[in-house]
Amino acid sequence: MFISRIVSCALAAAALGLSAASTTADERPEIRSHHGAVDAVIQGAVQHGDRDIFPVALAVGQTMTIDIASPGNDVRFQVYPPTTRYYRDEGGRWVFSDPPLWGSEHELQTWTGTLRTAGQHLIVVQGLDAVSNYSMRLQVE
């Protein structure tokens, strides 16, 4: 059974003491499941060349659906495996140790699939415009 909830990046950032008005991307709070299920709408904004990074713990065999929308159709996402390490390089850009499981640069806006690995996956949202507002729906069952 799905437990519906709305997750707002601004509210989550405020709860963590981060600036809710900031439009620069950063690591976001983990998306948590309720009895293994997630049905969340996440709203945020990301600048061109930067990323919003959402960790989410998932199990093998779960089905995940991600659908992202933005007013200018200028936001994409990738899903990285649990083994991925990431950091900012000296230029401030995010670097990921592994290739994405799904999605390449400038590719995905919607995806549904069955997970083949367990652990904390990363959903990485990127903007293609100066500042891109987005709404991302994540469903896991």
Descriptive account of the structure:
This protein has one helix at residues 9-15; strands at residues 4-8, 38-47, 51-58, 63-69, 75-80, 86-88, 94-96, 110-114, 119-127, 131-140. By secondary structure, it is mainly β. The termini are close together. The protein has one helix and ten strands, in the order βαβββββββββ. The longest helix is centred in the N-terminal third of the chain and has 7 residues, at 9-15. The strands form three sheets. Strands 1-2-10-4-8 form a five-stranded mixed beta sheet. A three-stranded antiparallel beta sheet has the order 3-9-5, with no helix packed on it.
Number of helices: 1
Query: Which whole number gives the mean pLDDT?
Result: 79
Low-pLDDT ranges = 1-24
Computed CA radius of gyration, to the nearest angstrom: 14 Å
Helical coverage, percent range: under 10%
- Beta-strand level of the residues, as a percent range? over 45%
| Class by alpha and beta content | mainly beta
Q: What is the subunit organization of this protein?
A: single chain
Main sheet: which strands, in order across? 1-2-10-4-8
Distance between the termini: 8 Å
Topology:
Blueprint: E1 4-8, H1 9-15, E2 38-47, E3 51-58, E4 63-69, E5 75-80, E6 86-88, E7 94-96, E8 110-114, E9 119-127, E10 131-140
